[in-house]
Design a protein that fits this description.
Elements lengths: L2 E5 L6 H10 L6 E5 L4 H8 L4 E3 L13 H10 L1 H11 L4 E4 L2 H14 L3 E5 L10 H11 L4 E4 L2 H9 L7 E3 L13 H10 L6 E6 L8 H8 L6 E6 L7 H13 L6 E5 L4 H6 L3 E3 L10 H8 L4 E4 L4 H4 L7 E3 L4 H13 L1 H18 L2 H14 L1
Parallel strand pairs: 1-2, 1-4, 2-3, 4-5, 5-6, 6-7, 8-9, 8-11, 9-10, 11-12, 12-13
This protein binds uridine-5'-diphosphate and alpha-D-glucopyranose.
The site of uridine-5'-diphosphate (UDP) has 18 residues, from helix 1 and helix 12.
């Protein structure tokens, strides 16, 4: 089966990292068409996945766009659609991995008579998307032969927004557990290099964006002893510079400069996670899936996650991690302090999480699930 994957992003967010794992088995029979140039293209090439940047024109649709803006950008898309239609003729299937890719893919699928698959990485709720954006996404997705939702939460929101249940299937992100087994020597080196020896390190791994809630972790830190240090790993990928400034301001105002380190975007996530004592996920809006939660588990590290969306499907409180109410720093601080004082219980929970996550999210099984769904088409 020859697949034309489409993704609008030039930068590697979670949906793009997931796509690398999905496209790999098809690397001799696929092309990933991108709507922007950037480091994601290089990552695909490093993984020997054929990639082509189909346009470098910025498509002006935002998550909160109005109808007029949405229609205006449709006109902008005509040359790109023409290119996708032409390219699709050499492939059996169009696989859209993001919302703008879905809109382009749906029209191209109709014109090239190729079936469309949509991988839904978002929760289509008012909290995340404007009404018009939800309507466009659902209308386009309902034309697909298959919608793969990254969690039950994403699937439920899709159906509530008017999406077709009969074409929707849940498939979680897959991971290679071996990538997350880090040698103790490397862990010690990493802690040393980052000046983290003797600290209780809480890691936050996410792009810097208001809804990812880094500010909640900073607020929680005020209620923790001084040995607790936070590392913020990730960058503002989609222009959230004001939020980054606010975070720095918040840290200065609270006098936490010596307890917080910004590490920027990194590609050594397993090494950094393994150097942490606890990993915090603090999204203030429902997380569609939450790759970082599973990655923390695979590293054998305890994880505390915000109780909403896909995170609830991944974490069982007190069994394989901890759940706290989103946007409640006090609850988060309580979990951090509990983990600091009861390392034995925390280690048992983290170990259990590592074993179960290695099976549940094994990339080989996940890719088999996807292959089976695609074969049925
Ligand atoms: N990540 C990364 N480098 C960073 C920060 C994050 O490679 O500096 C990765 C992280 O390991 C995870 C992905 O980015 O695999 C983020 O995915 P997630 O599902 O957690 O959130 P998203 O950003 O997709 O909403
Ligand atoms: C999106 C979601 C994230 C999910 C990722 C992979 O980026 O925001 O929750 O883990 O896609 O499916």
């Amino acid at each position: 089966m020859k697949i034309l994957f489409l993704d609008q992003s030039g930068k590697p967010g979670g949906a793009e990292l997931c796509l690398i794992d999905i496209a790999k088995p098809y690397q001799n029979n696929c092309l990933v068409g991108l709507f922007a140039d950037g480091s994601f293209k290089s990552l695909l090439a490093e993984n020997h996945i054929p990639v082509q940047v189909l346009t470098t024109q910025n498509i002006q649709v935002r998550k909160d766009s109005s109808l007029a803006q949405g229609l205006g950008s449709l006109r902008q898309l005509v040359p790109l659609i023409a290119k996708v239609v032409q390219t699709a003729r050499a492939y059996d299937l169009i696989y859209a991995n993001t919302q703008k890719a879905l809109v382009v893919g749906a029209i191209a699928s109709f014109l090239s008579r190729r079936p469309l698959v949509y991988h839904l990485h978002d929760i289509l709720s008012p909290e995340h998307f404007s009404k018009i954006n939800r309507r466009i996404a659902v209308t386009a997705a309902n034309r697909a032969s298959l919608v793969i939702a990254n969690s039950q939460a994403s699937k439920t929101a899709f159906i509530e927004a008017g999406g077709r249940a009969d074409i929707s299937e849940v498939v979680y992100n897959g991971f290679d557990p071996q990538n997350y087994q880090i040698d103790e020597l490397v862990v010690n080196q990493t802690r040393q290099q980052l000046g983290l020896e003797g600290k209780f390190v809480v890691g936050h791994f996410s792009r810097l964006a208001p809804w990812k809630g880094q500010h909640i972790l900073i607020e929680a830190l005020v209620q923790c002893p001084q040995q607790v240090t936070v590392i913020l790993v990730g960058d503002a990928l989609f222009g959230e510079q004001e939020y980054v400034q606010n975070l720095h301001q918040q840290i200065t105002t609270l006098g936490l400069e010596n307890q917080v380190k910004f590490l920027g975007f990194r590609s050594d996530i397993p090494q950094l996670m393994s150097a942490c004592d606890l990993i915090a996920h603090t999204s203030t809006a429902a997380e569609p899936f939450g790759r970082v939660i599973v990655e923390a588990m695979l590293c054998g590290k305890p994880v505390v996650a915000a109780k909403a969306g896909g995170a609830v499907e991944l974490v069982e409180h007190g069994i394989n991690g901890f759940l706290v109410t989103p946007g409640k720093p006090q609850e988060l601080a309580q979990v951090i302090n509990d983990c600091l004082h009861d390392s034995e219980n925390t280690a048992t929970i983290a170990n259990h999480a590592r074993i179960t996550a290695s099976q549940r999210f094994d990339v080989t099984n996940i890719n088999q699930q996807i292959a089976q769904l695609l074969t049925k088409l």
